[in-house]
Amino acid sequence: MAKSKVQRKKQPATAAPAGDDSLRVAIATALLDGEGPASLADRLIAEGHPASAARYEVERAVKSPYLKAATRLNARLAKRDWTLGVFSRLAQLDPDRARIPTIHDIDPDRFYRDFYLSNRPVKLTGLVDHWPALERWSLDHFDATLGDSIVELQGDREADPDFEIAKDPHQMRAPLRDVTRRLRTETGNDFYLTAYNSGINKQALAPLWADVAPISILAQREARDGFFWMGPKGTITPYHHDLTNNLLLQIVGRKRIRMVAAHDGPLMRNIVHCFSEWDGAELEAGEAAPGRPRVLDCTIGPGEALFLPIGWWHHVEGLDMTIGMSFTNFRLFNDFQTGYTSYGAM
């Protein structure tokens, strides 16, 4: 009697090894971004994945209840982006929002009413005309008064395209005199004393705070509320947004700032935390275009300041060797970072 043959059910092919979900994440991301299942499977095949495995993984993703739930969340996000797009279109209809105004010696009440509470940038002059720092701060003055002080800076930035995202590996310390020597001869983006280094530099540079004084639009909390910045011509801070309102102030040299309104965030290619995939060369100042936001442009020099509203994306370039400060101690609520929950989530 012939033995019966057991028919074994053919197991479906899988595109990714067990435990390796990177391809499945990529498939789900592509589907949520609007790529059709058929074209996605064809693309995977063209990239070298076996045809049966590619089609199986795409079909599996399409049928997944998890993707269905994510699709609903994606629709909510799209509705939010549509709402932001409405504000963007309305701003484009307002000629006053096509530029950053310049106001001299602004009245604090007007500043808060027309700019802080309206989330609008403004270039401000006359805020610090009374500061001794405008006359005293120079590389020679720093050498004479603080040359041996050990300061912290961000270094070796040009060796790492993610120098701003991964700041900690670039922290280094040096005598201030060594930094000023480099500032006299070097240009570029390789080193920079930034707000991120203020934990050390607040004490190391303490004698300088006698050269600053209260600013009319800010709240005075302590003798020195601001953050110190100093770098060569050519420093770059790539497109990002802050989690607070900021006042950027120049003492020496000029900075160019390009700005994108908070409501244009969906166009800013947010890749991680508060950083953008756009670089300065490809997202220049100009009007909005399909897939591109309106970009405003502003240059500030010695004694001038720029109010950077919370959520506004900005790109900062040092046009000269620069010394400046930034401040967050406004009179009204500015603790918005407390409610920010996206650290490490994207």
Structure overview:
This is JmjC domain-containing protein. Residues 195-346 form the JmjC domain. This protein is α+β, with helices and mostly antiparallel strands and 346 residues long. The chain has 2 domains: 19-93, no CATH class; 96-339, Sandwich (Jelly Rolls), CATH 2.60.120.650. 29% of the residues lie in helices and 20% in strands. The protein is built from 9 helices and 14 strands. It has helices at residues 22-32, 37-46, 51-63, 65-93, 108-116, 133-136, 139-146, 176-185, 198-204; strands at residues 102-104, 122-125, 150-154, 171-175, 227-231, 236-241, 246-252, 255-260, 270-272, 275-276, 296-300, 304-308, 313-318, 322-327. The strands form 4 sheets. Strands 1-2-12-7-14-5 form a 6-stranded mixed sheet. Helix 1 (22-32) packs across helix 3 and helix 2 (37-46) runs antiparallel to helix 3. The longest helix is centred in the N-terminal third of the chain and has 29 residues, at 65-93. The protein starts with 21 loop residues before the first helix and ends in a 19-residue tail after the last strand. Residues 1-11 have low confidence and may be disordered.
